[in-house]
Amino acid sequence: MTVKALIFDVFGTCVDWRTSVAREVAAVLPGVDATAFAVAWRAEYDPAMARIREGGRGYVALDELHLENLHRVAARFGVTAPDSLNAAWERLDPWPDVVAGLTALKRSRIVAPCSNGSIALMTRLARHAGLPWDCILGADIARDYKPKPQVYLAACAALRLAPAEVMMVAAHNDDLFAARAAGLATGFVPRPAEHGPGQTLDLAPEAGWDVIARDFSDLAARLPA
């Protein structure tokens, strides 16, 4: 296996969205259960993208979907949220191993996000979290959302690499199943704290992924230079 580039899921795999968004909610909406609000906001993420993936709506960047979802969840919680709270998704903190691991991987390979986040969101998030990407790939390039195959393939095409030369790295098995079906190599790194105490999803690999690592530093060690 000759992997020349690694592309990464970001929300959950690289950054701790649950704790970070809850922190921002608590600062802006005192009196609201901030963690419950963050989880409810995130729960609107996939249904909003599904309408686009299924052709019921043209491509809309995730920034706009997040804002629509913010107001939908705020109404459910009986509060009014300022539009500025939407920037919470640009201020997510990385997991402790991520920056050092990406830096090590970058010494020998291209590293880039393949996220459903927009280029604008991913750029600002990278600046906040110190993520040393070589470029920004993902939904905005493909004008569609994972797990549609064109999102993975558009990232490969942008890098002028064959799918087999690109590894998709994620903490989510469904992301890796879709990437493998598109011809990419796959790397699994678990994030057992993504959903907080009692998480039952994605605690272990659900297939024989090409690389299964404890964290990003272990991923770097497992890939030959």
TrEMBL record:
Its EC number is 3.8.1.2. One of its GO terms (molecular function) is (S)-2-haloacid dehalogenase activity. Coiled coil: none annotated. The keyword Membrane does not apply. Belongs to the HAD-like hydrolase superfamily. S-2-haloalkanoic acid dehalogenase family. Catalyzes the hydrolytic dehalogenation of small (S)-2-haloalkanoic acids to yield the corresponding (R)-2-hydroxyalkanoic acids. This is (S)-2-haloacid dehalogenase. It comes from Roseicyclus persicicus.
